[in-house]
Amino acid sequence: MRVLTAEQMRELDRRTIEEIGVPGVVLMENAGRAVADVLCREYADLSPGPVLILCGRGNNGGDGFVVARLLLDRGWQVETLLLAEADQVVGDAAVNLRALRNRHGKITVVADEESLRTELARCQPKLVVDALFGTGLNADLRGHAVMAVAWINAFAGPVVAVDIPSGVAAGSGRQLGCAVRADVTVTFAAPKLGHLLHPGAELRGELRIADIGIPQRLAEDLDESCFWLTAEVARSLLPDRPCCGHKGTFGHLLLIAGSRGKSGAAVLAAKAGLRSGAGLVTVAVPGSQQAIVAAAVPEVMTEAMAEDQGKIASAAADALSRLTVGKQALAIGPGLGQSSSIQTLVTRLLDDWKGPMVLDADALNVLADATETLRRRDAEPLVVTPHPGEMARLLGTTVAEVEADRPSAARDFARLRDVVVVLKGAPTLIASPAGELAVNSSGNPLLATAGSGDVLTGLIGGLLAQGLDSFAAARLGVYLHGAAADRLRCRIGDAGMLAGELAAEIPPTRQALKGGLLC
Ligand SMILES: NC(=O)C1=CN([C@@H]2O[C@H](COP(=O)(O)OP(=O)(O)OC[C@H]3O[C@@H](n4cnc5c(N)ncnc54)[C@H](O)[C@@H]3O)[C@@H](O)[C@H]2O)[C@@H](O)CC1
Ligand SMILES: [K+]
């Protein structure tokens, strides 16, 4: 499902009005009707209210006037507070303010904190509709809007936000000063980034997406495309499992991982590689770790590499090159540790191996200096899976700067280095070298545990081995990883998952996804 920025939404509105010829008031009527329909459907038990509708001076407030008029028509008691002077309301919003007045709706202009306090104390609503600010908010909330938000957030009954909770920036999900916490948000045409990125993702409550008459095909011309990685999208990426397939059909993954004290990372990634559905997994580990890994995962093949102080040594270069023969994908990084030998080995593999490959953890450091190596690779794009700290190191910036604009960080690095970036976090973002961005919809705090990144690397590696292209494997891997944690949360709660349990949960999650049981 496509995700829009505030500017893209404005562009689609404009083109629908100017090119298609649908008047703005029709779009506003459709928007207001969609909200009224949600209220009548989901809060029928609170009818006839009263409903309090808080409106701002822009078109978000205009939608609020439509909601007020339609709810009056449907027998609700409605109070409308306008937090602006009536002459500040212009255009389509002014048309609907007039229509509400003509319908004898009760509209009270509250120009300051004093009158707002008085009106809020008088209203006693059962339900509140937030139509103060929408996608046009461009600065921190000030004045009596701040008081209105605080009052809404202290209100005990349900709060429904029109388009986006007031105070949430539609392009980033950031809170501009303060923001409404809604139970339900009804947005129009498509979700906005601000609905999916935190804190907007929590503040919006349940998201309802309403068609207001903006043709989907207009979105196809937009420069930057961003998609919500829903179950439906993930399902479309699942690789085939032909009945006559054998283990060779489903690919052979070479995992290069582990060091003294970190053999568990290799074990977890190896298990996830197999749980992803790959036919065969070979794990190359420092010789001293081979028995540990082989005992922990008897289903994988293990290869002992020359080692230096517990880490794979540069003397292993030729052996590793030989091991790549006949493999469909490589996964490099979990628990490798950091050393100049590791840098040399990974750089050589980047040069020699033209097939799909996922790099994580310690292997990522190589990329900071490998611009030229990556440019001349002429191979399937790499998948890299940094957390914000690693992303900051790769971009030569700070974690705070990465966190301030996660979509740009992921996109910039993907374009610059011609790689698929999986920027871990809540939510995880996946960016392609072509500039596409996917925002994951699955996952929860259970994933914040040791080894969960190793599981993701093995999972993506296993999907690459099954023939998925890099962007598809990264998206499906990220979705399944989060969805497996979501299933576990239903059973064990939101703390205390072991990463090994996550790997074991991948097959039933995949099956549930296939059967349409995830949404
Ligand atoms: N044709 C359209 O453009 C449609 C717009 N729709 C609605 O219109 C909304 C966008 O409307 P607008 O662009 O008018 O903007 P908003 O209604 O979001 O409000 C912004 C208004 O407040 C002012 N403002 C911005 N930041 C402020 C701040 N911090 N403090 C005080 N005032 C501030 C702006 O100058 C503008 O007048 C959408 O969210 C949606 O609800 C829908 O009616 C569908 C059709
Ligand atoms: K709003």
UniProtKB/TrEMBL annotation:
Protein's UniProt keywords contain Lyase: yes
EC number(s) given by UniProt: 4.2.1.136, 5.1.99.6
Any coiled-coil regions, as ranges: none
A molecular function GO annotation: ATP binding
Residues reported to bind K(+): 60, 130, 166
Cofactor: binding details: Binds 1 potassium ion per subunit.
Catalysed transformations (reactions): (6R)-NADPHX = (6S)-NADPHX; (6R)-NADHX = (6S)-NADHX; (6S)-NADPHX + ADP = AMP + phosphate + NADPH + H(+); (6S)-NADHX + ADP = AMP + phosphate + NADH + H(+)
Biological process annotations from GO: metabolite repair; nicotinamide nucleotide metabolic process
Positions annotated to bind (6S)-NADPHX: 59-63, 134-140, 163, 265, 335, 387, 454
Binding site for AMP: 424-428, 453
Pfam family, one: Carb_kinase
Keyword terms of this UniProt record: ATP-binding, Isomerase, Lyase, Metal-binding, Multifunctional enzyme, NAD, NADP, Nucleotide-binding, Potassium
Domain called YjeF C-terminal: residue spans: 230-513
CDD domains referenced in this protein's UniProt entry, alphabetically: YXKO-related
Signal peptide start and end residues: none
InterPro entries referenced in this protein's UniProt entry, alphabetically: Carbohydrate_kinase_pred_CS, CARKD, Nnr, Ribokinase-like, YjeF_N_dom, YjeF_N_dom_sf
PANTHER family: ATP-DEPENDENT (S)-NAD(P)H-HYDRATE DEHYDRATASE (PTHR12592:SF0), ATP-DEPENDENT (S)-NAD(P)H-HYDRATE DEHYDRATASE FAMILY MEMBER (PTHR12592)
HAMAP family: NADHX_dehydratase, NADHX_epimerase
Subunit structure: Homotetramer.
Function: Catalyzes the dehydration of the S-form of NAD(P)HX at the expense of ADP, which is converted to AMP. Together with NAD(P)HX epimerase, which catalyzes the epimerization of the S- and R-forms, the enzyme allows the repair of both epimers of NAD(P)HX, a damaged form of NAD(P)H that is a result of enzymatic or heat-dependent hydration.
Protein name: Bifunctional NAD(P)H-hydrate repair enzyme
